[in-house]
Structure prediction request, 101 residues.
Amino acid sequence: MGDYQHVSIKTNSGRLKSFFIFKPGLDYFLALNKDKPLTLIYEVAEMNLPESGGKTRIERLTSARVGKLTYQNWWKQVSRGNTLEQLEDKYGPLVKKYPLK
Prediction:
């Protein structure tokens, strides 16, 4: 569906679940914590996706947590004093190593 970033997550039951990702850095956080148990928060939303004919119901990740570390707190810390380009240089290769589909 277009040029949108997705991630596939294996649930506790072993089922794969796919989510859209729109938040900056969330892909980095997920790739860094790939093999750790995560708590995810997602929402069901209707979005205008022209590639699929207009309004489409999607599931998009809004937050993630590993242990006590939340994506939001991690992102505040790593993005402070770094440009998006610097963050991409640092974390982008990890995301490419573990493609998010």
About this structure: The radius of gyration is 14 Å. The CA atoms of residues 48 and 54 lie 5 Å apart. The longest helix spans residues 84-97. The chain has one domain: 5-97.
